[in-house]
Amino acid sequence: MKILKSNSKFLILSIFCSLLFACATENKKNNENTAYLFTYFTGNGAGEEAIRYAISSDGYNFHSLNNNEPIVASDSISRTGGVRDPHILRKENNDGFYMVVTDLLTKNGWSNTAMSLLKSDDLLNWSSSVIDITETFPEFSDVTRVWAPQTIYDAQAKKYMVYFSMLQPGSYDKIYYAYVNDDFTALESTPKQLFFNPNEKASIDGDIIKKDDKFYLFYKTEGDTDKGIKVAISDSLTSGYKAEQGNVDQTDKAVEGSGVFKLNNSQDYILMYDMYTSGKYQFTRSADLKNFEVVDEDISMNFHPRHGTVLPISSEELQRLLKEFPSEDLTEITGAENEAIKSNNIVIKRSEKTVYLPVKYGTDLSNFDPKFDVLPRTEISPNTAQDFSNGAVAYEVTNGENKTSYQVNVEVANNPVVEGYYADPEIIYSEKDSKYYLYPTSDGFDGWSGTYFKTFSSPDLVNWTDEGVILDLEKDVEWTSRNAWAPTMVEKEIDGKFKYFYYFTAAQQVGVATSDNPKGTFKDSGAPLISEKPEGINGGQNIDPDIFVDPKSGKNYLYWGNGFLAVVELNDDMVSIKDGAPKVLTPDETFREGVEVFFRNDTYYFLWSEDDTRSPNYKVRYATAKSPLGPLNIPENNIVIQKDENQDILATGHNSVIKVHDKDEFYLVYHRFTRPKGEAMGGAAGFHREVAIDRLNFTEDGLIEEVKPTLEGIKPVN
């Protein structure tokens, strides 16, 4: 009997321990950071200087909460009625949160003297106090700016400190710090200077993060010749910061408001900053907090933030935020992981309860599992492979008490033809290899700053193989290393051997490189082939070459120009220009760039792009001629291709044309904004473009029929 009691006690103890372990595991799971909270404001207009929230499951794709409306009224937490630059921090013991903001309403001017300190137990309800520097500290009674406060825990002092920039008459903005009282309602010490700029220039928007026992202070410098975001490093939180050389921002545009956060379950960090004159945010990634790579192509936001910060949060905190601050168009589905999906082109519309998944050619739609990504603590059903060959399949998404049904379409989409960001596509058919080769601009670089070219091969214009880099300006070209744009290519048989001549734009000049193989690598000639504009041409740029071999005369012509269209005849060596001045053929005022010349049925076709590549209205027009040197005849309706807003296909331009071998069959190869993110990117869509191919048809009298851009693209060509 005693043994039985003992066993019973042991059983009860085992169950109790199991329950404790399960509870501890569940609590740990609930407390793990699985998502992100972005706090930000939106601008200088009415109602924009207020704290807003957005959430993300991966640190890259953010969605606003509360329909992008403020989560707390600015006039309840400030004196001016406006707050900016919100910085949020989790308390060291994980029992609440602190936030600090600039107390400033810019319609009254850019001078201010106060900041607001806020605290919350749950991210939902905030109490606040206003600290006016001029009233609190006589030493700073003359301060005219108190900007961009942030807070951090000082483990050595066991206190929270706030750091911010201040401006006094006759000086420049300097970054100061002060400790906060235990209630987080007031500064308990007089501000001391934290960072001493070695150049004695304005320093604002400080942001500190600790890594490997060192403190990294990111800050913005002001001035005409040395402005941007820099980093200073110290072994101490409150002193000894030494500035590193150069900027850490990856743009030449104006920037401010840097914010650094560590990615969940990763050793990498994100540095983001406000490109405030460009109307966009830039995200960069780094492993060492010194070297940063732009990752804008991976970022999406359905709002336009200004100077904010990101805080990793738990699933439980995320659920709390979703319940308190719902948004009408927030979707619980955040992506899909099946490798057949073209992930850049997924379209999720909560308002319509639809998901569009474009997949690669050859994907079996009858047995396909999207492998959906969802917000933490979200369930989706069904969770196995489904038959999409007959249309949409219904999925039920459960998040807490909310249940939503989505119609999911999986469709083969041959456009874009290659995944990733590429533009200005040139295409040839190689007689040597019996393959098609695509030669695009490598896109996705801020301000068209790419420096290398790649090529792709295909037997059928649908299935493409990445053949790698064929010319790298930084390694292979002596005369420049910037702006690798808009190449053109020709295969020539010379003395019984095939040679390849690759004309490319670099530093707004036209160069030429050669190879014995269509997939390179290519050797540069050593100097630009086109560096001067034609006589009488003052504007525009020497870019966007197009090589054309006249099938009637065998002569070789090189066309180029932005703002003007020029042509020269090349010698038989293909790398030098015949004597004589360039001829200007500019068709009309619609000509912008991207000329393409091809021949069909005794007619020469000249195609060009109109408008700006950053505009959704970028399009292609054409003219015809009886000679490769003109004159050009412009048909009454001469649009070749333009945007289709019903399909969200925008900025269809800068094309080439390919004829199927021995057939009267032509295809238009062009670029478009990345879809669906392009329109939301604004001007940055102009260097986040994708290559597409659609059929090019003609009327009986040789006019080009307007091409309708498609998502499905073309079928494989024999």
UniProtKB/TrEMBL annotation:
The keyword Nucleus does not apply. It comes from the Bacteria. PROSITE patterns: PROKAR_LIPOPROTEIN. Residues 1-24 form the signal peptide. It holds the Pfam family Glyco_hydro_43. The keyword Cell division does not apply. InterPro entries: Glyco_hydro_43 (IPR006710), Glyco_hydro_beta-prop_sf (IPR023296), Glycosyl_Hydrlase_43_Enz (IPR052176). Belongs to the glycosyl hydrolase 43 family. This is Family 43 glycosylhydrolase.
